[in-house]
What we know:
This protein has nine helices and 17 strands. It is α/β, with parallel strands linked by helices.
Amino acid sequence: MIRLLHTADWQIGKCYGQFEADEAALLAEARFTSIEKLAILARDRHVDLVLVAGDVFDTQGVADRTIHRLFHAMRGYAGPWVMIPGNHDAGLAESVWTRAVRLQAMPANVHVCLKPEPLLLTALGAAILPAPLTQRHTHADLTAWFDGAETPAGMVRIGLAHGCVQGILAADIDSANPIAAGRAEQAGLDYLALGDWHGTRQVDARTWYSGTPETDRFRANDSGQALWVELSGPGAPAVVTPVATGQYRWLSLGFALRVASDIDQALADLEALGPADVVRLSWTGQTDLAGYLRLRESCARIQGRVRSLQADFSALRLEPSDADIDALHADGYLGEVIAELRDGQRPDRSDAEGARDALAILAGILHERRKGRAS
C-alpha cells in the first residue's frame, strides 16, 4: 500500500494587486501557511510521499527570502517531496529552480524533476514519471513519453504533469500545455497527478487535478484542498479523498434589490460572514437614498469583520423618494439637481454611472450635514 498526498499550484510569491496592501499581505502569507498544513497533514497521516504537480512558485523572480521560506515551510514532513516545474516556474536554463540550488535552499528529501525521466523510489516500490515544463507554453504533449517508459516490474507507476487535459475546454479554445485524455490508461499508470487547474477535479478513475491548497480566486471550483491517495498495488483502483487545507473562503455574492425588504434579507444573509471570508459583493436593482446609505454603512461595518470585502454598487440605481428629499432638506436648486441626477441614471444615458455616483455623493454630504445639525 502506497499512501500519498497530491497537491499543486502553490503559487508562492503570488501578489494580490486587486486588494488593499494589508489584505494582500495576509492572503500571500496564507499560501505559506497552507504548505505548513500540508507538511503536518503528511506527517500525521504517515504518507509515503508528497507529489507537487507544478507551479510551486508564482513567478521566476521571487525573492531569495521567499525561496528559503518555502522550503522551510515544508520541513514538517521528513519524507520525500516530489515536484515538477509548471508554467509559472518553468525549468528554464536559468530559473527559480537553479537559484534554489545555488542558495542551497532545498532539503535532501525534496526531489525536483527537471528532466522527463523516471524517478525510482525503490524503497516505496514507486516509479514517478514526470513531465516538467521547460518553457511557459508548449503545444506538444509532454506526457507522451509515459506510454513507452519502462519501469521495474512490480512498481506502482505514477505520472506527474502540469497542463490541460484535452477535451475539457471548449473545442474552439487552443489550450497550451496539452495532455491527452486517457493518458493514464494508455501509459499503464496507476495514478496521474495533475496541476494547472486551481480547483479539485476528477478526470477519470486514475487522473485528478488536486487544485491549489489555498483558494486564490472567486470561483466555485472546490479549491483549498489536497488529495489523499491510496494505491494498494500495481493495477489496483486508486482511492482518492479530498482533504480541506485552505484558510480563507472566497465568496462572490450578488443581491438584487426590488423592494425595501430585500435590503433586510441581504443584510441578514451577510451577518453569517466572518474573519475567514474574502468577499466580492455586487448590488443590482434599485433603492431609495435611505436604503443606499444603510447599505454603505453596513458594508463599512462588515469590512471590519471579514478578511476582505469588495462591494460594487455600480449597477444599483438610486431612486430618491419624496421622503428622502424632504429629509435631506433638498428643496429649490438642490432638489432640481437631485431630480436631474436621478433622470441621468437611465440606461440610455452615456454617463449613467457618473450620475449615480454623483447622486450618492451629494446624498451622503447632505446626510452628514443633517446629522451634524441634529447633534
